[in-house]
Amino acid sequence: MTDHATPNLPSRDFEATSQFYTRLGFQQGWRDEGWMILKRGGLTLEFFPHPELDPLTSNFSCCLRLDDLDAFYAVCLGTGLPETCWGQPRLHAPKIEESGMRIGALIDPDGTLIRLIQN
C-alpha cells in the first residue's frame, strides 16, 4: 500500500453529504451516527458530524490529487454544479497556478474547500 491520507471533514447532515458526493462517484464505505467514510477509487473522505457549522464561515479544506483532473472536473460539471465565485456548492475551473501546478476547486455544501490538483 502506498502512503495516503484520509481527510476528516465536517458534515452538517450525513445524508445530504452522502447524496452530494454520490453524485460525484463516491460510495459509502462506512456510516454510523458519529462517522462516515466515502470512497471513489483511491480517494477516501471521512466525515464527522458538525450540525452547527456555518458554511459561509467554514475554514475546512483538503486536497484531492488526481491523475485525471479533467475527467473528475467533467463529472462535477455533469452534476450541474455551477462555476461561480459565490455560494456553495460551486466549482472553480482548473488553471495553472504560480507554483506551476494545475489546480481547480470544489466547494461542498458545507463550505469545505476541496482543492483538485493534477498529479
Automatic annotation (TrEMBL):
Domain spans labelled VOC: 1-119
InterPro entries linked to this entry: Bleomycin-R, Glyas_Bleomycin-R_OHBP_Dase, VOC_core
SUPFAM superfamilies tied to this protein: Glyoxalase/Bleomycin resistance protein/Dihydroxybiphenyl dioxygenase
UniProt key word Lyase: yes
Keywords: Antibiotic resistance, Dioxygenase, Lyase, Oxidoreductase
GO biological process, alphabetically ordered: response to antibiotic
Top-level lineage group: Bacteria
Single GO molecular function: lyase activity
Coiled-coil annotated spans: none
Assigned protein family: Belongs to the bleomycin resistance protein family.
Protein name per its UniProtKB record: Bleomycin resistance protein
